[in-house]
Amino acid sequence: MHNTIIGIAGGSGSGKTTLAKSIIDRFGDAVALISHDSYYKRLDHLSMEDRARVNYDHPEAYETSLLIEDLEKLRGGTAVDIPVYSFSMHNRTEATEHVEPKKIIIVEGILIFENVQLRDLFDIRIFVDTDADERFIRRLKRDISERGRTLESVEAQYLNTVKPMHEMFVEPTRKDADLIIPGGYNDVVFEMIASRIEDILEEGDKVE
Asked: Is this structure's pTM higher than 0.85?
């Protein structure tokens, strides 16, 4: 199967997951979605308190080599079982998610363009560029409502790790994108991306 791997990067709370899920909603089974967050390293050796203090916005927090391995398998036509991560426990679970090779594979994450080997696997690179204040507000709402965090913990994490790591590792990868979406997700840009995906799917059908 010929497939196209699309990378969607951007800061935490930028809207990249919204974009990725909108693509899934439009194209359904023709698309597989993988989050870099699923590949956070196992931290069984640390207590819950110590896991909460880990810098999850640094490249070393991820087992990116496993993501690269899984993408190469998918590109070769082999299904994979990707990790399932628990944000409330700050650790991987014992569960896995089975992912079959698809014509379109979307990978989203804040640092997916930081690793050169991973970045080179993407046929299309998209960077969702959203104002820092808006990203923080979105992250605050999400982490409190979906991940069981407190206002104080979200604020401390943002100031101590999220903001400085964004400036050090995420923002510089903006230059590596083929397409930069200013201001986050919007319907006009989504339709442009959807049109390109439709073309890729039609081209794939002709090849097959």
From this structure: yes
